[in-house]
Amino acid sequence: MPRAEYSGRYGDSQSDSGCAAGVPGPAPVSICVGGVQPRSSWRATLGAALAAELEPQLHDGTLLSDREHRAAENAAGEPIASAIIGSPQNGHKGLHRPDFALVRGDGDKVIAVEVELTLKSRTRLERILRGYLRNQNVAVVRYHADPPIAESVRRAARAVGADAMLELAPLPSTGVTRNRTRL
């Protein structure tokens, strides 16, 4: 877990003034969380917004985050909603895990949910979609993406025969403007 580094500690005169390195004056406190990039915070925001949209639709099912899904697959000893993309190495299959997995209450079929923010190569998309076809647990693969990326996913699904299991949906609304400026 990344450790947050603060420009001052609670109770320090530096944090009382809101300035780093003892520079006097009213400036905001800078908080830097190690390893978190603006892109990953945007992804986390979209993931939270999508989870909030999906949760009321569950009825008798369960929404698993990528970490919960990984833990469930490790406990089960087999893929639940992952794309099977490689041959077994050291007793483990090569897997591509979706951002979320919607598991029905009866545990019969699952929906793999992908949040696609960047365009992947045609070869990579086709390999992932073929992997979803290999996993007999997956009934639907739902990609949330902007239109140009969604069209690339649609073409890749058509090329590998996965178009029947594909659903395309817009990215969730976060109420936050995406900043595309690199820091």
Record the SSE blueprint.
Layout (H helix, E strand, L loop, with lengths): L3 E3 L6 H5 L13 E3 L4 H17 L7 E4 H11 L6 E2 L10 E2 L3 E4 L6 E7 L5 H13 L3 E8 L1 H14 L5 E4 L14
Parallel strand pairs: 7-8, 8-9
Antiparallel strand pairs: 1-2, 3-6, 4-5, 6-7
Helix pairs in contact: 4-5
Concise synopsis of the structure shown:
The protein contains 5 helices and 9 strands; from the N terminus they run βαβαβαββββαβαβ. The chain has 183 residues and is of the alpha/beta class. The strands form 3 sheets. Strands 3-6-7-8-9 form a 5-stranded mixed β-sheet.
Q: CATH class of the largest domain, anyone?
A: Alpha Beta
**Contiguous runs where pLDDT drops below 50 for at least 5 residues:** 1-34
- Please list the strands of the largest sheet in the order they lie side by side: 3-6-7-8-9
Total beta strand runs = 9
Shape, principal axes of CA atoms: globular
Give the helix level as a range of percent.
Answer: 25-40%
Content-based structural category? alpha/beta
Q: What is the rounded Rg? A: 21 Å
- Count of helical stretches: 5
- CATH architecture field of the largest domain: 3-Layer(aba) Sandwich
Beta percentage is: 15-25%
- The CATH topology of the largest domain, please? Trna Endonuclease, Chain: A, domain 1
Number of domains: 2
Residue-averaged pLDDT:
76
The largest sheet is: 5 strands, mixed
N-to-C span: 23 Å
Q: Element order, helices and strands? A: EHEHEHEEEEHEHE
